[in-house]
Amino acid sequence: MKEHLKKKIEATEINVLRRAGRTSKLEKIRDDIIKEQLGIKETIIDCIEKKPLVWYRHVQRDGRKEWIHGIRKYMSERNLTAENCINSKTWQLRIGERHTIGPAGSRLIFIRAGNADPKRASATTFAKCIFMILDILCKEDPNSTIAGISLITDFQDMSYGYITQMTPSFLKKMATSLLAAYPVRIKSVYFINAPLAFIAVYHVMKLLLSEKLKQRIHFYNKLDYCYNDIPRLVLPKEYGGEQASCDEISDELKLKLESYRNWLLDDEQFRSNDTKKYKTSKNRKH
């Protein structure tokens, strides 16, 4: 700290202490006596100078590797890189912003369509898997209904057979189920490597979406571009993230679904009967 700042802080501090002790400068009482009368043992300057020393002790005690790992974690949560240090405005803006995806934010559902065969697993099967995951998520994690969910779909190497199955009717049913049938909020939707055919279908379907949801849907041609919105902390290893590999996550999810097999089969028996819904006649007079 520069000397002129220290003098300003000390002058302000003693001015406040004189007012607290109801003493005037005309009484010519020394500063140390005023501090002794008020029981002040440390000045503001002392507290300021002690903070870096406490921080230095923590770094030396915990070890440099653990400290660096913690710093990288916090930077990943705020989408900061070492290059951002050059621009002070960018750094100051982002250190106060944390990503809302992960354990403390919205729950993440990652979909990879590249290894799927449309003849063995149709788009309807994909939809059922998503809904089963949502069922289990709502059962095990009630807070997910408040935090919301984020969907990431990677279309890399996806068979064009799925594009023909993604009809406007199918997409409308999916949107209705996610937005109206489930007690969850769609916080964000990310499409990576989306083919032109899917983008064309989306432009037709977005006419049925609300403006709020449209702003939460993002398209990325390259994986590197998505890091601005999705922290590496929540991504699998294959996507440059810090989580387990996609195969490990898939095996864990498969075991989870199999453990809920009987519960999901029982739940499938419950259906809605649209014929019993109350219908208001169009010609009814009020």
Automatic annotation (TrEMBL):
Residues 103-247 form the CRAL-TRIO domain. Keywords: Membrane, Transmembrane, Transmembrane helix. One of its GO terms (molecular function) is phosphatidylinositol bisphosphate binding. GO terms for cellular component: membrane. SMART domains: SEC14 (SM00516). The chain crosses the membrane at residues 189-209. It comes from the Eukaryota. Gene3D superfamilies: Alpha-tocopherol transfer, CRAL-TRIO lipid binding domain. InterPro entries: CRAL-TRIO_dom (IPR001251), CRAL-TRIO_dom_sf (IPR036865). This is CRAL-TRIO domain-containing protein.
